[in-house]
Design brief:
heterodimer, A: about 300 residues, alpha/beta, 11 helices, 8 strands, about 60% helix, B: about 140 residues, five-stranded parallel sheet, 4 helices, 5 strands
Chain lengths: ~300, ~140
């Protein structure tokens, strides 16, 4: 009654999502999934980051007695660039790019299910575009009504917004037929162990999740505060990266002006140091803004 | 060479072929990167947003590589990438995205770099892109 859907038994078309904390775990799950498809003589498609593509290919080559040459690999960001417009997933562009590619792969072995792994949604969420990720899930689901594809998606734990009471997480789960938890649960040896793990998680969550706290105010406030601080740190990090980036370039330029082939360019050096000082002032002002926001919220 | 030397005349609509084309609205960052790249022997041009960049590239310029920021006014980096992808003459020009957004571990690829970038790594990638570009026959 509790068996977790495995990467196997996916011969029918469908849409599953794997949550993960560890890259090695994800690579193994995807390699198992693809190995099953290859073993059945199915076409396989991977749309992933370069690191995961390398890991998946290596895992297949290392331990699977299958012809891994039949797997088609695509870059997740390059695919996204083909249909994302203005921060939105464009349906027509998706059909013309990803849809056409999947149709071509499916046409190689008619009447057989294509095994596909995709993590464009995780890339979008990492870029804080969860809305676009949900749009993309919808476009995939439309595509799956027309093409025989067993699609496995993946999200890194924590990549989905935590400040909305889990609404985005719930929406992601709704988009998929199978939802697979991280290795923390799948690593348990049997269903009894898994049930104990779930009970333990429920016990812990109850003290932090406003939705399950039964109206108790303090845990709700703690949950909201944690979410707000997470957003705050993320925004502050983003704001600080730009001036730090520029400051580093300016300091390198200052060093470079001393190493010119025809001797040190002291005029340029003075100018770069002046600009670096101005950038440091800008950085300090941003830091003051960050601290004032923190003080106003405390 | 003055610090602003390679960046004067923004928006950068040039008549000669650059090696590196920077698309970024942060003038200070563009100036510093231009200076550094020029000191390494590259010919550099720049534009302040995606729309200016498209105008420039559609005018026939063919840089070896585009250094692209994502958060920009008028037309952002995502919109630029989408327009480039739909244009066969532009899609072959490699793009290195330099962004302040922190991608999830594993999401960062060789063509996406998070600010503050390691200049030596960026130089390596520009060098590779330019070397590959020069191997292509004219017209590509």
């Amino acid at each position: 009654m509790f068996s977790i859907p495995s990467a196997g038994a996916r011969e029918t078309a469908g849409h599953a999502v794997q949550f993960y904390e560890d890259d090695a775990f994800l690579v193994t799950v995807v390699a198992d999934f693809l190995a099953e498809g290859l073993g059945l003589g199915r076409s396989c498609l991977v749309i992933a980051t370069p690191e995961h593509r390398r890991g998946i290919a290596a895992a297949l080559a290392r331990s699977r007695p299958v012809d891994a040459a039949g797997v088609i690999y695509c870059d997740a960001r390059e695919c996204l660039a083909r249909f994302m417009t203005g921060g939105r997933a464009d349906e027509a562009r998706f059909e013309a790019s990803v849809g056409r590619m999947v149709a071509e792969v499916a046409a190689r072995r008619p009447d057989r299910v294509v095994y596909a792994f995709g993590e464009m949604v995780n890339v979008l969420c990492a870029d804080r575009m969860a809305g676009a990720a949900l749009e993309l899930e919808g476009l995939w689901n439309d595509l799956l009504t027309r093409l025989p594809v067993s699609l496995l998606c993946a999200y890194r734990t924590g990549v989905l917004a935590s400040g909305d009471g889990g609404a985005t997480f719930d929406q992601v789960c709704t988009c998929h037929r199978d939802v697979r938890p991280t290795q923390r649960l799948t690593a348990e040896s049997d269903d009894a162990s898994r049930l104990r793990h779930v009970a333990r998680l429920e016990h812990r969550v109850r003290d932090f999740d406003p939705a399950s706290a039964g109206g108790r105010e303090v845990p709700a406030l703690i949950g909201a505060d944690v979410a707000a601080r997470t957003r705050f740190v993320s925004a502050a990090s983003h704001e600080l990266r730009n001036p730090i980036h520029v400051l580093r370039l300016q300091l390198r330029a200052a060093v470079c002006s001393l190493d010119m082939a025809d001797g040190a360019d002291l005029v340029a050096l003075r100018e770069w140091l002046r600009r670096a000082d101005a950038q440091a002032v800008r950085l300090s002002e941003i830091l003051d803004d960050v601290l004032s926001v923190r003080d106003s919220e405390s | 060479m003055s610090p602003s030397g390679g960046h004067a005349g923004r928006p950068a609509i040039c008549r000669d072929e650059p090696d590196v084309f920077i698309v970024d609205d942060d003038v200070d960052g563009v100036d510093a990167l231009t200076y550094l790249l020029e000191s390494h022997g590259y010919h550099v041009k720049s534009a302040g947003n995606g729309r200016e960049a498209l105008q420039y590239l559609r005018g026939g310029a063919r840089p070896c590589v585009v250094i692209l920021d994502l958060a920009m006014p008028v037309m952002n980096g995502w919109q630029f990438l989408a327009a480039r992808e739909g244009d066969k003459t532009l899609s072959s020009i490699p793009v290195i995205v330099v962004t302040a957004s922190q991608p999830a571990p594993g999401a960062e690829s060789e063509m996406v770099m998070t600010k503050p970038v390691d200049l030596d790594v960026l130089l390596d990638r520009i060098r590779s892109a330019c070397a590959a570009s020069r191997l292509l026959p004219p017209g590509n």
